[in-house]
Design goal:
There is one protein chain. This protein is an all-alpha fold and about 180 residues long. The chain has one domain: Tetracycline Repressor, domain 2 (Orthogonal Bundle). Helix content is about 75%, strand content about 0%. The chain has 9 helices and no strands. Helix 4 packs parallel to helix 7, helix 5 runs antiparallel to helix 7 and helix 5 runs antiparallel to helix 9. The longest helix is centred in the first third of the chain and has 27 residues.
């Protein structure tokens, strides 16, 4: 979808209606009939991205990892795959939250819901690994994932960035498992 590429690479506010219509080669009435407004189109872009990223992580984590501990760490491996692309421009959801700069904005609420899903997924894997108390570790791991996303925007060695994030996650997870007397 041309709009998705534009929103991702240039930002939501930077892309006007005329540019969207030109890139999509669509009449303005099609945009309004299908999405109601540019905001409706952006919302659909974000919801679609959320669905696709969730499915990608679920599929790839299950493919890469056999144990709950490995699944937590595989989240960083999948992230490494995402940021390896030459067209990488950061995490869509972090970018939207920064661009909108209003925690009550509907687009930011979609971004927050996406991050909440990631945190809950990490928490589930940690519980499956035997941790009784998955917080605050799930939140710390989410912060680490987000840090990898942002760091990869600023540095060119994406593979190394993801690897360092994975190594830090491994230290945190292993320490939490050891503290609760759970075999890793």
């Amino acid at each position: 979808m041309a709009a998705a590429d534009l929103f991702y690479t240039e930002g939501i506010r930077a892309v006007g209606i005329n540019r969207l219509l030109e890139e999509a080669q669509a009449p303005i009435m099609s945009l309004y009939r299908i999405f109601g407004s540019k905001e409706g189109l952006v919302e659909e872009f974000l919801l679609d991205k959320d669905r696709r990223v969730r499915a990608l992580f679920e599929r790839e984590v299950e493919r890469l990892a056999d144990t709950p501990r490995e699944r937590v760490l595989a989240m960083f491996d999948v992230l490494g795959q995402l940021i390896a692309g030459s067209d990488y421009r950061g995490c869509t959801f972090i970018n939207v939250a920064v661009e909108m700069a209003d925690t009550e904005h509907p687009f930011v609420r979609i971004a927050v819901a996406h991050k909440q899903f990631v945190r809950e997924t990490l928490s589930r894997y940690l519980a499956e690994a035997g941790l009784r108390e998955t917080e605050p570790l799930a939140t710390q791991l989410l912060m680490l994932l987000d840090g990898v996303f942002v760091s990869a925007q600023m540095h060119t060695n994406h593979e190394q960035t993801a690897l360092q994030g994975r190594k830090a996650a491994e230290v945190l997870v292993d320490a939490a498992l050891a503290a609760e007397g759970v075999a890793g």
